[in-house]
Design a protein that fits this description.
The chain is an all-alpha fold. Helices cover about 75% and strands about 0% of the residues.
């Protein structure tokens, strides 16, 4: 139980781990710069002693002493330089490992946040769709279509003209309209014919001579035969005359 609690207590948040890794990278970078400075100094020492060794070969000092001193100092400097280079190589490997860890943690953290966001979205959609199903959606759409059709019918009914109980015969109205147009046209023709005409200047037309046309003898028209009254008709006439008196 204690080990389990310690394991829980030692858990590190991704952000804290990234911060610690970056601090370690910064420390290693400073260490690498320091070692590079040491390498440069050791290289200068080695070059300087090699130059002194060459000058000592042409001097009055004993040849063995000059050679031994110069080579020993240069060799020691090169050894220290090599050791520093080995440390820098190890530091570069450590830096590469830490940088890869930082990238891996950042990617894992991004994936975790993405999954949490996707899960929250899925839960929200479940909550929304929990009160809906395809049957309810279809019923709602049917209600919307029905109300739209009703609104269109109401609009068409309102837009129709109202005759207030008076019915009109379209053919009769058209005939009357044509008659009025014809009368207006006739009046215009009469006005046009009478414009600019002076009746006093119009010469009287010559009288047409009358020709006597001989009468044509018409055949005699047949006389209509008088109907023969029966005895009953005669009695009926007498009765009417008596009642008239």
């Amino acid at each position: 139980m204690n080990l389990f609690r310690r394991a829980q207590a030692t858990k590190t948040a991704p952000k804290d781990a990234i911060v610690r890794l970056r601090e370690s990278l910064e420390m290693l970078e400073k260490r690498e710069k320091y070692l590079q400075t040491k390498i440069d100094n050791e290289l200068k020492i080695a070059k300087a002693n090699v130059s002194k060794n060459k000058r000592g070969l042409h001097s009055d000092a004993p040849l063995a002493l000059a050679t031994l001193y110069g080579w020993s100092v240069a060799l020691t400097a090169l050894k220290r330089k090599k050791a520093y280079e080995d440390q820098i190589s190890k530091i570069m490997g450590s830096r590469m490992t830490l940088e890869q860890q930082v990238m891996a943690i950042e990617n894992a953290n991004v994936n975790l946040e993405t999954m949490n966001a996707m899960k929250a979205g899925a839960d929200a959609m479940k909550q929304i769709h929990g009160h809906l199903d395809i049957n309810k959606v279809d019923a709602t759409m049917d209600d919307i279509r029905e109300q739209m059709d009703l609104a269109n019918e109401i609009s068409e009914a309102i837009s129709q003209p109202v005759n207030f109980g008076v019915e009109f015969d379209e053919e009769e109205l058209n005939e009357e309209l044509e008659l009025l147009e014809q009368e207006d046209l006739d009046a215009r023709l009469l006005d046009t014919a009478g414009v600019g005409v002076d009746l006093g200047q119009v010469e009287a037309a010559p009288a047409v001579p009358k020709i006597a046309v001989p009468a044509i003898a018409q055949p005699p028209r047949p006389t209509r035969a008088q109907p023969v009254q029966s005895e009953e008709d005669a009695e009926l006439e007498e009765l009417r005359a008596a009642m008239a008196l």
